[in-house]
Please model this.
Amino acid sequence: MAETLKKGSRVTGAAREKLAADLKRKYDAGASIRALAEETGRSYGFVHRMLSESGVTLRGRGGATRGKKAPSS
Model:
């Protein structure tokens, strides 16, 4: 997606479907929601909503988990 959308502009109809498909493809390929938001010039919430509407299973947050500590040798 080379062009960024004007912030706050409504995305409807075929343009919305195309954007949703592009976001879904890139998210499934490993891009983060924040990276997609920056790339498209839209907010995190907008991208999150578009992904949810298109049926994407969202990944959990990354980073360290608070599981059991591995035994040290």
Notes: The CA atoms of residues 20 and 50 lie 6 Å apart. The mean pLDDT is 84.
